[in-house]
Amino acid sequence: MVFLANLGVNLHVCLCGDPQVASAQRLDFLDIGQKSSFPDWKLGSIGKSFPDGHYLFIRMKQYRLSLQVLIPFIVGGMALLAFLVGFHIGQMDRPPSLSTLLAAFLMSGGIAAFAGIIIVRLFLKPIKRAVREATPAADPYPRLEVISEKDELDCFKEAIQQMTGALDTEEAVRLFPEIIGSSRALRTPLRQAALVAPAETTVLIHGESGTGKELMALAIHRLSPRCGGPFIKMNCAAIPEGLLESELFGHEKGAFTGATSRKPGKFEAADGGVIFLDEIGDMPPITQAKILRVLQERTFERVGGNQTIQVDVRILAATNKDLSKMVQEGTFREDLYHRIHVFDLNLPPLRHRKEDIRLLADHFLKNLTSPTGELTPAALRALTAHNWPGNIRELQNVLERGALLAAGGPIEPQHLPPELVQQAGGPLDHLPPDAALDQKLAEIERNLIIDALYTTGGIQARAAETLGINQRSLWHRVKKYQIDTSGIKRNFS
User: In what helix (H) or strand (E) does residue 274 lie, and over which residues does it extend?
Assistant: First the structure.
């Protein structure tokens, strides 16, 4: 069987033998075929031989682009074109001699090219350094060795895509309709989730309680090839230690007192689909060892049984704890940590995405069973200023309470919990006690800007006037703190 495709512009890959030996984690496409089909391809320093006789052949790009040459060339060419047009218009009544025209032509081009070189040296060097730092290091032990000839434009394009790694708002809504929010702090993990969903990779979702870890796991399952299979969730903190193993792996009849019949476990129920292990940091050590075996071999035995059961499941895990710190303390197995820590997703707390509070509030109020009014601007300012240690779950409870007290009318500050209204001044409780003064001032400034934008409906000119600063200064601060003004403005549209 031969599978043909292209990798890049002029880069082709040929792997002789079974296509399954190729790992396409870092390749967009592979050309796979027999060696005899490509007699002009040679195995050289860029080739890879496998123990079973497979070979990897690569034909490199036929040209490379260097910005050191490209920028001076473009700048010089534009200057020459401008010189010719201007000279022709100015000398229409007096045609110049050929030598004068040629000398002026060369001088203009030389000066422009020199200016282009200066631009490259002064401005391109720090940009290239940033690109170098943003480019991830290559895997020292790749499953498939592919040496790809990339020019500088390719490297710049890849690095910029990584540095600006966030879905646009429309794409986020299309791919993740169940996750409410448009802030950049949220769209960055959404982009990562969209990338990892089609793979079979184990995903570890980090986030404080109430940030939506289960919703993210459901979204990954929906976007994966296993979307037709079951999604089984298991809260490792909600099951007593003595019953957790039975819940996960099942038990045989008579395995323990009260086991009157055979019961399949969660892993069996998830066969062909996804199992979501929530709060995996609370799993007892003895169960951690058995989970490790399932991750490695996809096999296990029921409690009280000897039959080995094989399952085909993808594992998603979530925690609100620092597992790396738990590993150092000896409360979480290091081998299990490295098994589940394949792909990390970090969900931001609500205090880092306050631009989404209005969207979340509208969503929750709309889905209440009893009719309710809208939030008043004063109530919205109080919600925005709150620290939200309970995150989205706390916001939902506060809004439900406020809607009941408002009795169908607009939700005012008096309908909110008293402690929340009293804190409506930009709390810093979420910052560590030893936080630097600059960090505290930056958080206060960010909250003041968001409050002003909400007050003015997302209009920056009016917000700048409210804050007593010019619009350019506000624009720089909005960029600095990555505040999604368009999302705030949509809340009022």
Answer: strand 274-278
